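Can't paste images in this forum, so I'm doing it all in text. The chain is below; anyone willing to post the predicted structure tokens underneath?
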Amino acid sequence: MSDGLEGVIAANTVLSDVDGLAGCLVIRGYSLDDLAGRTRFEDVAHLLFDGFFDDMPSDLTAALGAARVAVFAETAAIDAGLLKLTPVEAMRALTARLADGDGLDTALKLLAAPAVFIPAVVRAQAGQSLVPPDASLRHSADILRMLRGRLASAAEAEALDAYLVTVSDHGLNASTFAARVVASTQAGLTSAVLAGISALKGPLHGGAPGPVIDMLDGIGRPENARAWLEAALDRGERLMGFGHRVYRVRDPRADVLKAAVRRMSEGSSVLPGRVAFAEAVEKAALAILRDRKPDRPLDINVEFYTALLLEALAFPPSTFTGVFAMGRVAGWIAHAREQLAGGRLIRPASRYIGPQPRRAA
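Text version of the structure:
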């Protein structure tokens, strides 16, 4: 037995490969460096879906745009009770209204769901009118338009694309495994995606980028970084944005997102200062971790620059996990279809360690 299934091979996949020792991520035969910042999210979704849907068009842009329009109808269900939930919980509730199925139509609606529902919930919670989708726009540009009520710049849309591509798939992580388990029961793609969302919202999986902003705001200035970080570690707290279950070197996704933030900062009067501050915090944290934990390989992970990028795009920290789902849903769907195509019902064994039955006196 391996606690937490550490090192246990539970599936064969053609979708992604995570090499934690080398710090490499491969998605469907392409290095992350060859995709992020160069490829639209729609194209990576097509890459992940390829071979799992017989009727898939050569370009998903129009079909995904139509799917955004279709799922927007479900925002009519937003009520006072739903608005009391966190954005990711409200998004999950709205996604649950979509019919289950295994075909491309269901897949595209699920791909569109977080992109439509997160902006809608944010605006509704702020007392603002909802912005319907524009099917003619690329996916990332329409997400930002629905969130902010105005068109995004090309640089902003490209930055969000880089993020969505970067998190689209990442091996057999907790949420992807949950989605595959549900898919193996033939429950349908909607049920599988709901399982993925439920696993992602846990703070040990997809809930950490928001606290990175809290950490940066708490530090305030570069010269405060070392003292603040040392005090946090003295209290037994974890430094948000550092360390990863799989990577024993720097998370390759961190550098991709750092580059995306830097590109977006060109021409900005504010963002370059925020980037420089984050880099100072990163440098201080890595030095402290090397001193305090020399035997543990703790480096920056995807969450650190995710927080900076999403903050710059005007996503509230409360939405960060939901924005993560906008990208990862492509991987969940692809894994669910892969599981259906060649996998058995997932049913691992357990070892009983409880008391034995008592014999009657």
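The domain at 209-312 is CATH 1.10.230.10 (Cytochrome p450-Terp; domain 2). The mean pLDDT is 91.
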